[in-house]
Each structure stands twice: as C-alpha cells, then as structure tokens.
Specification:
The protein is built from eight helices and eleven strands. The chain is of the alpha/beta class and 232 residues long. Strands 2-1-3-8-7-6 form a six-stranded mixed sheet, with helices on both faces. The chain has a three-stranded antiparallel sheet with strand order 9-11-10, with helices on one face. The radius of gyration is 20 Å and the shape is elongated.
C-alpha cells in the first residue's frame, strides 16, 4: 500500500523551520509496512495545495497531510481537502466542546471567533481528538477507496495523536511491516564497496540493499518486507 506525505506551510519552504514531521511520519509508515514513494511540501496557497492533493490521490492509496489546520485565514488544508473530496463543512459539536475545554483548562483566556473555524469538519469525516491543542485530526475515505488523513502541524500535537489514534488505524490497512538494519563499513569508498557486492545489488529483491556515502565510511541499509518484524 502506497502512502504519500504532504507537508503544508510556507515556513517550511522558506527554511524557517525544519520539517521533522515528515521524517517522523516516513519512519512510522515504513515500520507499518506502508511504502512511501513521494513526499511533497507545499506553501499556504490554495491552488498549489489543491493540485498537490489531487496528484497524490492519483498515485497513492493513503495521503497524510500535516499543517494548515489552525484558526487563521492562511490555514486552508481542511477547506481544500473538503473541496477536492466534494464534501461540505459543518460544525462538529464534540470538537467545539473540546476547544472550549482546552481554553478553559489550558489557555486561560478568551476564545476568539476564529477559533471556531477549527470545529468545522468535512461531512462523513472521522474526527480524531487533539488532546494537546485545538485542531482535531481527520480521517476521510474517498469513493474509490483512498484514505486522506489530516494532522496538526505542531509536533507536540502530531506525535501523540499519531501514536494513540493514527497508528492503530493504519496498522489495519496492511498485513506487512518494513524493517531495516544498517551495516557500517569504515575506511572504504562507496564505489569500492558497491563493486564488491555488485552481484547482491544486481539480484536484490527482498531484502534490498542501498549504499550511502558518509564521511570516512559507507553505510549499507538492508531492508526487508515481511508479515512481522521477527520474520523481516
């Protein structure tokens, strides 16, 4: 099953922040046996975001979008996703209650009107509670059996949400895992190492081998796909 990651945020494109979410999600998806062939970063632009999502749905089974779920006008991920999937937005009463509770117990300040934007969800979406913020996660299914998952951008919100709710959901979509180990070889160049294992590189299927040049050494990443970590 092919998964694609779309990171939303102009601040990522400008280099203002490091995209640690993509690395985390890529590792988690690989551990679940999901093949990640594409990672896309797109700014807070509705047309480009719509184009990225439509392209992802053509080539991937699961699309995970991170960021752009905040209360301001440039947070457009939910709205664009609803447009692409042909869904209307409606206020979710449970999410509104969660936002109220979060502000009362954590923020200790007045809720502004734009915060209620985060209580709007696409019709038919599965709402995932955000225990560390105000923007809920969302899981949506398309008519052609594709899955779109929306996650908040702040890592302190995304990581626990993934661990508690998204990982169990994704684990039901695949029966395989992907497991990797790294062999480190010191004092030799990448070309020399590759020449020594050319027969293995030419005939590889499962496991696969990928050489990486490092300072003063070469790493060989050996990756296997199987029904369990132990088998891999």
């Amino acid at each position: 099953m092919v998964t694609e990651l779309i990171s939303v945020g102009t601040e990522i494109l400008l280099g203002n922040i490091t995209n640690t979410n993509a690395r985390y999600l890529a590792e988690q998806c690989a551990a679940l046996g999901l093949s990640c062939y594409y990672q896309v970063t797109v700014g807070d632009n509705p047309d480009r975001l719509e184009g990225a999502l439509r392209q992802a749905l053509k080539r991937s089974d699961v699309v995970i979008l991170t960021g752009g779920l905040g209360p301001t006008n440039d947070d457009l991920t939910k709205e664009i996703t609803a447009k692409v999937l042909g869904k209307n937005l409606a206020e979710d009463a449970h999410t509104r209650e969660c936002i109220e509770a979060y502000f009362k117990t954590t923020m200790h300040r007045v809720i502004t009107d734009n915060n209620w934007k985060q209580a709007l969800v696409p019709e038919g979406a599965v709402v995932v509670d955000n225990r560390n913020g105000t923007a809920p996660g969302l899981i949506m299914e398309t008519d052609d059996n594709k899955t779109v998952i929306l996650l908040p951008g702040p890592p302190n919100e995304l990581y626990p949400m993934f661990e508690q709710d998204i990982r169990p959901f994704l684990s039901r979509l695949t029966k395989e895992v992907i497991y990797s180990r790294t062999v480190k070889i010191g004092g030799l160049g990448e070309s020399f190492v590759a020449a020594q294992i050319k027969d293995m590189l030419d005939s590889q299927t499962n496991p696969t081998i990928a050489p990486y040049a490092k300072t003063g050494e070469v790493h060989l990443r050996v990756t296997a796909r199987a029904q369990s970590v132990e088998m891999a």
